[in-house]
Amino acid sequence: MRSTDNRRIVLASRPKGAPTPENFRFETVATPALGEGEVLVRNQFLSLDPYMRGRMSDAKSYAQPIAIDAVMGAGTVGRVVASKDKNFAEGDAVLAFGGWQDYAVVEAKDLAKLPAGLDHPSYALSILGMPGFTAWHGLLKIGEPKPNETVVVAAASGPVGSIVGQIAKLKGARVIGIAGGPDKCRTVVEDFGFDACLDRKAADFAEQLKKAVPDGIDVYFENVGGQVFDAVLPLLNVHARVPVCGLIASYNATSLPDGPDRLPLLAGTLLRQRIRMQGFIISDHYGDEFADFQRDMSSWVAAGKVKIIEDVVEGLKNAPDAFIGLLEGQNFGKLVVKIAD
Amino acid sequence: MRSTDNRRIVLASRPKGAPTPENFRFETVATPALGEGEVLVRNQFLSLDPYMRGRMSDAKSYAQPIAIDAVMGAGTVGRVVASKDKNFAEGDAVLAFGGWQDYAVVEAKDLAKLPAGLDHPSYALSILGMPGFTAWHGLLKIGEPKPNETVVVAAASGPVGSIVGQIAKLKGARVIGIAGGPDKCRTVVEDFGFDACLDRKAADFAEQLKKAVPDGIDVYFENVGGQVFDAVLPLLNVHARVPVCGLIASYNATSLPDGPDRLPLLAGTLLRQRIRMQGFIISDHYGDEFADFQRDMSSWVAAGKVKIIEDVVEGLKNAPDAFIGLLEGQNFGKLVVKIAD
């Protein structure tokens, strides 16, 4: 590989339902020349997250779809290798939206400098970055858990869910996780300190959930939808709060489920139980709240009060399979791809 | 009728679907004797409101169901005719939950004194009472309209909806009403000052609504559900707020509509558009907010900025038919039954 070669993964076609390897194309192109105010970044880690599934589609969503033949987008941690901007110099550690590729040309205004010599630079993609901020905002600004309330967290072993539960414990709540399979449930309780965790794949999952929340559910952090939400809905207490962060169960769906139409059931439950259900997208909140998040979370991480487990996949070419597995729940912890040392 | 006779309407049977006259029974019983701390009230006006449909059922709801053979509940304005409590004397004007009957025995703690000599004592059941407070709380505390935003109000000719729209105008919003039929729409625009009003019964209602909100919908005050909500949902803007006050379209429903199941569609829209959808029941908020509401609303009414149209039905025995008509949208303004002068 020549030093000007850039290996990258582009969107070859839009998935119908679950993405397949054919939706991605691995290619090598020349690294573009730098313009004024631009910086060339060598990507070291890239973050794989469920929201990327939405950007592969051209349905209406909160973000522009990725164009066919364009590089797959992703948050990245990397090192500056060349700079035509006075604020960045070769060797700087940076956070960028650098995509699924070796090198990214990024406008300086879209780069954030990271402290030099970090023990875990990839944490900027997880506990100290977007997933951590998502958990912090959704739980504290919408969920608003109070001491002794019951908080239920979907996708509890994932990066967002695991942090949601740990913050809820810090706030004095009783915290029940929901995860896919006994191994994930074990780590939710043993590593992340939830009070209990239920396997959503169990045949009697809905019954188990009902027993696990004898006082009902005050906050449900929604990351999943589908049958998990169906089990949660009848257990929501008066004045419950439901931050809607993700709906991974439906991301690959190509049509609505069969009837009856339960839209009136959901609306009626919101009314009868005086529930607040509120969707959010974390990119709306960086300007107002990211500094508060960083202050809270870095002190919690330093004190060992909140932690993350990373699932590190080695090698750019393995990103598509890792992403496909993520949508199926096969990852174990925050999924990052290590591209370079 | 002897002076101790009490004419009343009780719940004879629970409705299946829409209530019928057979669900009610008119009867005359003796007025009970007063105990210590109790007050005998002669009801003059009783309020008919959609929420009463829920109390006729024994399905889980936010209020206890009315027992079979018990008197139908209702907010009432009346006059004290006898008192065994030191705070109330014969002749006092009072607000009570006195029910569908001539006389109510009420504990003094459940009575509120009204000023003597009110021009419109029945306003305590509408613009200065529960429906007005419902509109004020739902719009200002959940809807939070900003100047130049677009507010859409369902059941816009009704007591809650008409007040919601008038307050939204005071706050500088553009206000579109939805009502049943051209006569109601005319009064929504001409009497209540909405910018426009659409007939939900029109064949091309959804198209009309889309054209009426070129900038989308920022606040939707939900009173109806059903096809009105279906037309609103795709028009909700990013960061829209949906106070859910009522769902009259489904109150008489005995089963869910046919599929597909649009619950995931609603949840997905809340997420993608970052919408807050929040149910509320006004009885939760009297302690905290009623004084603020009274201060705002009495000044607006005095200044002629907010008004109400009353639909006064004469005679207790006509209450069941009036209530059945209310659920079909046949009333025109705030429905009250005048029982006595």
UniProtKB/TrEMBL annotation, chains A, B:
InterPro entries: ADH-like_C, ADH_N_2, ER, Glyco_hydro_3_AS, GroES-like_sf, MDR_fam, NAD(P)-bd_dom_sf
SMART domains: PKS_ER (SM00829)
GO molecular function, one term: hydrolase activity, hydrolyzing O-glycosyl compounds
Sequence ranges assigned to domain Enoyl reductase (ER) in this UniProt record: 19-337
This protein's record includes keyword Protein biosynthesis: no
A Pfam family this chain is assigned to: ADH_zinc_N
Keyword Ribosomal protein: no
Family to which this protein belongs: Belongs to the glycosyl hydrolase 3 family.
Protein name: NADP-dependent oxidoreductase
Organism of origin: Jiella flava
